[in-house]
Design brief:
By secondary structure, this protein is mainly alpha-helical. It has one domain. Helices cover about 80% and strands about 0% of the residues. The longest helix has about 35 residues. The relative contact order is 0.14.
């Protein structure tokens, strides 16, 4: 039974890795369009692009957790503790970011919440605001920790070595982005976007290939 469960987890990891990579490519395209169509650099990305990005993030978040589960199923026994920590921190990232973007989608435009000047301090996706601070917590604290421990769970050369190094790079950029908070410079924080929008999907695609090979061999 445990062997069947492990094989299932491997298959989940394969599907999750592909899902993360594909959705992030779409997200990157929408992000580029949103930035290119900004009426002013001081404004946040406008609709419909902003709403599409919110929905994509809500879809990406659980796929990232599923990939961490697949990585745990694949990881060598002596490195499974690292993979478990990756699951924990990726789950924390997913929960926080899903709450942030669901609240923005469902409440920020409601008349009850939109009235007055205070909603900009809560819902505006620019610094300082409550949702932006929570987003930083998710993507510049929890995500890089998840990527770091995910990288430590990987052992091997070739594609595995590349995936491990890409995850290390993704984690490093996330932590660099966090320095934008004490510096009060969100341009520095945006460095972290490269880590989770560009580098992490590459690692996800590579891990999907590796885990698929493992699943095909029936090795657990």
């Amino acid at each position: 039974m445990s062997q069947c469960n492990a094989a299932l987890n491997l298959r989940v990891g394969v599907i999750a890795g592909i899902t993360v990579a594909v959705l992030n490519v779409i997200y990157a395209i929408i992000l580029a369009i949103g930035l290119l169509t900004l009426p002013s650099p001081e404004l946040q990305i406008q609709n419909p692009w902003f709403t599409v990005m919110e929905l994509l993030i809500i879809g990406i978040a659980p796929a990232m957790v599923a990939l961490a589960v697949g990585l745990h199923a694949w990881a060598p026994v002596e490195r499974k503790s690292y993979a478990q920590l990756s699951i924990v921190f990726m789950s924390m990232c997913a929960v926080v970011t899903s709450c942030v973007h669901f609240v923005i989608l469902t409440l920020s435009h409601q008349p009850t919440f939109a009235a007055g000047s205070w909603p900009t301090l809560v819902f505006a996706f620019r610094w300082p605001s409550v949702v932006y601070a929570l987003d930083i917590l998710a993507w510049d604290v929890f995500f890089p920790l998840a990527a770091l421990f995910g990288a430590l769970a990987i052992q091997g050369m070739g594609l595995l070595g590349v995936a491990r190094n890409v995850l290390f790079g993704s984690a490093a950029l996330g932590f660099i982005g966090l320095s934008g908070v004490p510096l009060s410079d969100m341009n520095v924080r945006n460095i972290g976007i490269i880590g989770y929008v560009l580098l992490y999907p590459i690692a996800a695609a590579l891990l999907s290939i590796v885990i698929r090979r493992e699943a095909a061999r029936g090795a657990v």
